[in-house]
Amino acid sequence: MFWNSSNMNWHQYTAMVNSVAPFHHLSNGVLLNTSSPVKSSLLGDLPRLPTALCASNYFQYLQSKPVKEFQPTILRQQSSTTTPLPYDRRDLSLSSTANSTTYSQNLPVSRQQCQVCRDSASGVHYGVQTCEGCKSFFKRSLQAGKGQTFVCAADNKCQVDKRLRRNCAACRLRVCHMVGMKSNGVRKTKVGKTRYIRAKNVFDLEEYRKLDSVYNTETVLCRLFQNEIPNMIEWAKNIPGYKDLPLEDQVTLTRTKCLDMLVISVISQSCNLENAQPAVSFSLSNQKYEELLAHNESSSGSLIKEKLHSAVINPLKAYGTDMFCNMLKVISHYKSLNISQTEFEVLKLLLLTNVDNSLKQSLTNTELFSNLKSQFRESLLNLCSSKDSRSQGQSRYDDLVMSLTLIKDLGTRLEACMSQQAEASSMLTNLLKTIL
Amino acid sequence: MFWNSSNMNWHQYTAMVNSVAPFHHLSNGVLLNTSSPVKSSLLGDLPRLPTALCASNYFQYLQSKPVKEFQPTILRQQSSTTTPLPYDRRDLSLSSTANSTTYSQNLPVSRQQCQVCRDSASGVHYGVQTCEGCKSFFKRSLQAGKGQTFVCAADNKCQVDKRLRRNCAACRLRVCHMVGMKSNGVRKTKVGKTRYIRAKNVFDLEEYRKLDSVYNTETVLCRLFQNEIPNMIEWAKNIPGYKDLPLEDQVTLTRTKCLDMLVISVISQSCNLENAQPAVSFSLSNQKYEELLAHNESSSGSLIKEKLHSAVINPLKAYGTDMFCNMLKVISHYKSLNISQTEFEVLKLLLLTNVDNSLKQSLTNTELFSNLKSQFRESLLNLCSSKDSRSQGQSRYDDLVMSLTLIKDLGTRLEACMSQQAEASSMLTNLLKTIL
DNA sequence: CATGGTCATTGTGACCTC
DNA sequence: CGAGGTCACAATGACCAT
Ligand SMILES: [Zn+2]
Ligand SMILES: [Zn+2]
Ligand SMILES: [Zn+2]
Ligand SMILES: [Zn+2]
């Protein structure tokens, strides 16, 4: 719904936006207006979601970068013959030759790999496909008990793969928990029958709550982002005049601005929620929260869930990366402006066409673009002037335009978050390639 | 010079800004105008600089957080008596009791500490005060030769202190280089006389060039930031009407906006440099670069040095953190707008007063602030209108206001950088406290 | 006094036992 | 088949000889 705008000209478009303005819907509410040709969007309505994207697969996907391992394929027997040590089991050589022997080589990149570090797995341990190393690591962490706490030297976002897994125990254990490794109590003596069932491969709230930080607002926004891109592109296509731009320019604009657009959409959506006043839901009980979370785990654009999420799990975060608090501030700003949905829609357009000069020069049809841009600008000015008196209108226009800096700020922060969530950039490229 | 604006009313101020507009100065140029009562600023003129802030001290300062070590002060002899092992030298207990015995306890937090990890130092090793651990670590890295390369699992920004130094070898070695540790060749056999002189404690380019990334644009901006704050505050005090605001509001505004103000100043300064076209200095030879760097190491606001710096040292950076490229883009944008210094000055004022609602509510005198803000806004509108025709003026006004999103974007990125450079936030608080 | 070497201690992971 | 144990190996750092 959110990105929806059917084929019509500019005036029809603004008219529609006006008429649709008072139309609110919640993430877990029902869609009231069934007559309009809505294309459902994840930013509020949550249609059928590919459930394959659950926690384990998600992280597996994020970590599936082509690890460069051009091992020389020699000197394994070499070292053991030259130095006849009594034993040499461990492989800490960092250029090992041992793991190119999985029979289903590298076709889908996924099976037979350790879900934690992408090394070759030796079986299912503690509920998850892992390598010997991660198995032992998790075992030791269990044996050590609750006393030991690892600390990350960076931001709890360390890469965990075959060569780096020894660097940060905190992040390694975090990933272990994320992919669902569990002790299942101490092993029962000798029951040959129904043993360890495979872990459900879904976020487990109890496990999840043990984790510290990091994976909350940012993670969900990143995931949301993936799902929302197609809707955003569809929306842009239906902007009057946008399709007249050359295709390359459309792609350029969409690609450059998609993060900002995601942000402004979530913000405008949140402004419409009646119960989105900051700090209200913070008093909800954990039980209520779990109900809500269980009701619809998959994905939701509204900040309401995010807020609950943060309230329960999120402790203090690193300075400057707390997306949640920052978003609340911006929402409150817009609420104080008493902004209408119509104004939000036009602000979106302004934001989409607010490019710096270098980007503008790279467009193929600058003329057409500038026309479009000034048209949007004009539109906002008219909107402001019609409501209030002359000088009041100018003042409101200024307020609205200046508020875009806040959106931009959030977009930049989100970009930083995403860049740390592995290959968001290439992911984006691929997505856009498949869509257009 | 840059933050300079003497005591005068608003009209005098704009007049002065107008008259001073075509006045350019380079970082290594001479100051031409000696009659005006300029207060020199680091953002271009570089007066006497407290040279105490060199590389080593800087990192030492950044890392001087109050490490929470409430060691139980027992069980040292305990363990050696209960288990009569033949040897137990190393202290890996993580709650050691050994380092509260430095006789000059914790008065200035600085002396007798390892410059790398803040553990208690055992003397000067490889030219720098270090602990035994870091000494051995550096020794091994020398013995291993160039073959071995450490890789950081995060972003080459890991914290290095007593408990975390074992986490990331890459970052530990990086810090070793940063504080100036050197091999000085292999030790001469037996010369009892003039031996290792203490390292100069200044950035050494040769050592520095060995490092990968990270410490370039961002580091210098952070350092510049420290030095520039007082000038910024002085500048703000002289804005007509600003001193009429309550003192708390002044502090609030200054504190919230100082990063953005730093960014816009560097940008405007860079736009004035004749040779600041992007990608021009990239062709300079290394020798030329070293000359420039040697000429004035301490601090310089102009991007010209930054550009050289990056051109020589900076390889590709993490996505989204490359301040340098982003700044170049913005500079080029403003150059294409053909922006005047006067316009920049007013933009600065607009940026200073562009706060979100929550901040505005926290001000004590909202009325006064709003008046000031609209005054600034008016001023820019007049400036634009006077130059061009009516509609042209509005268009330019829009362009300028929208361009503030670009500045905000840079500010946000810089904030992220600074937050990773340890305790920039508390540093800022202290600074502001001492000034006001 | 700083350097280079020594070696107990700790984390690791390939392999083994059950 | 997987949990738990084993132990060679690598990194670390307190201490020592020079
Ligand atoms: Zn693994
Ligand atoms: Zn980590
Ligand atoms: Zn140290
Ligand atoms: Zn690191």
TrEMBL record, chains A, B:
User: Would I find DNA-binding among this entry's keywords?
Assistant: yes
SUPFAM superfamilies named in the record: Glucocorticoid receptor-like (DNA-binding domain), Nuclear receptor ligand-binding domain
Is-annotated flag, keyword Protease? no
Instruction: Show the stretches that span the lipid bilayer.
Output: none
GO cellular component terms, alphabetically, are: nucleus
For this protein, the record's Pfam families field holds: Hormone_recep (PF00104), zf-C4 (PF00105)
Write out the entry's keywords from A to Z.
Answer: DNA-binding, Metal-binding, Nucleus, Receptor, Transcription, Transcription regulation, Zinc, Zinc-finger
State the SMART domains in the record: HOLI, ZnF_C4
GO MF annotations for this entry? DNA-binding transcription factor activity; sequence-specific DNA binding; zinc ion binding
Q: Which residues form the NR LBD domain?
A: 187-436
**Residue span(s) of domain Nuclear receptor:** 111-188
Q: Which InterPro entries match?
A: NHR-like_dom_sf, Nucl_hrmn_rcpt_lig-bd, Nuclear_hormone_rcpt_NR3, Nuclear_hrmn_rcpt, Znf_hrmn_rcpt, Znf_NHR/GATA
Subcellular location, record wording: Nucleus
The record's family statement is: Belongs to the nuclear hormone receptor family.
UniProt protein name: ESRRB
Source organism (scientific name): Bugula neritina
Q: What does the record give as the organism's lineage?
A: Eukaryota, Metazoa, Spiralia, Lophotrochozoa, Bryozoa
